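Field: sequence (string)
Field: structure_tokens (string)

Example rows 1 and 2, in order.
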Amino acid sequence: MELSVRIERWPLAGAFTISRGTKTEAVVVVAQLNNGTHRGRGESVPYARYGETPDGIVTAIEAMRPALRRGLTRADLQSAMPAGAARNALDCAYWDVNAKAAARPVHELAGLVAPEPRITAYTISLAAPAVMAEAAERAAGRPLLKVKLGSGDDDGRRIAAVRRAAPGAELIVDANEGWTADNLAQNLAACADAGVTLIEQPLPEGKDAALAHIKRAIPVCADESVHDRASLDALTGKYDAVNIKLDKTGGLTEALALVAAAEQRGFTIMVGCMVATSLAMAPAMLVAQRARVVDLDGPLLLAKDRADGLRYDGSLAYPAGAALWG
């Protein structure tokens, strides 16, 4: 299998802000595999939170070139590389090239049903309460809004302002590890008052013991605290749901295995994404078929997406065309 890999930059339609900072472009890494007849692609997003950089991901993928030429398989890849963005790009490229070689869609190769459209969350970026309210008012017709919190003492005002601006929308909150044990109770109460239905990663990974002891009316979802199946043992008693992202699991292969393992333990499934193009969303749409909450709005935040990508009818996301992936 021959390999090519490159870094691409995709401008956003506007600034995207979470508790850890602001970005104005999506920086992605695209891996392409060629078996001599067919080509397959996979896209990943390096995540600085885990020490990943675009150049570092390219280097990690390039290091697999000799093994790929010797006939490394997708199954071999799972132990040859750790979970993370580098393996995700290669794993999804494998699924794509194998599907083309077999003249069968990826969902059939994986033993899954054909993907159907799913309602996706639409993200309200972190800002001052009035700014977030304006953004929520513009998106008030969408059925599901994901509200970024986790900065300073204004989160109660932020979520209250969003609720007033979008009274009919289901709200989920992502604190991106931005709360502390000291303000957890008041922020949970503010979210309950606003009718929030799910809260992602309120406390930092490894500093979330308080979740096992605090009473709460809202389910809490692990994001940064869950990567692959090996993460699940530490979540029991603290989290009610898990957010599965292919850049964390290291690809579709582990993501599907994680879904099954998490369901067996009683966790509700959420599927999420980084800010990326539809090439990254296409495999995640297969995981979305098993998810209670879908957050695959990455392409909606871009100034322009790839051709043949996911089609969005409001918040209803339709699977990408076969010409793009799978």
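Row 2 begins here:
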Amino acid sequence: MRFGRKRTDDDPDRSESPETTADESSDPRARGPWDSSEITLEEGDETRVDLGSLLVPVNHELDVQLQVDEASGEVIAVVLAGETGAAELRAFAAPRNGDIWEGVRASMAAEVAQLGGTASESEGPYGTELQVSVVVELEDGTRAEQPSRVVGIAGPRWLLRVTMFGRPALQPLEDGDVETAVRDVVVVRGGTPVPPGDALPLTMPPQARPAAPPA
């Protein structure tokens, strides 16, 4: 599923993030992504789409696509897709005083190895990342190597797992369209108890419509 809104000449500049006085060298989230407690959310705000546990930015540069489990009909991930690349977003519950990213990283690396791919660790703006490469089958039946970069961003009782594809995976830019949009994401943890490591629920917004088949 995908949805969005058209940009008009009257639209204000949505590229600015909430102001912060945090030291970026000690706080990887000094410019986002945000916890819902860290910013003011106005009712009827059209700059982000409410997907339950994630509020994601919508603008003229990116499509917001939903990955839906065909069996259950549940939304399992959100994809911000642009001309040069994309980012898949999944939010998970985490303990109040702890970080589950190390364990998630190890599990993902093991899964990649089972698929015959490779996964290596590197350091990025949010800490340790995974550089992944797997072989996938294309629509024409041929097989090709698909690189990706997996980032774990820890917040208050949550982990946002971001998988970058295309240019953001190979040549990350601080002011890139996908990278900027990821920083503008808001995680709504909520007060409902969720076991650490379980996915935070995503909901289908009313304005969602079926995505066109890929070219």
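free_text_note (row 2): The two ends are 15 Å apart (CA to CA).
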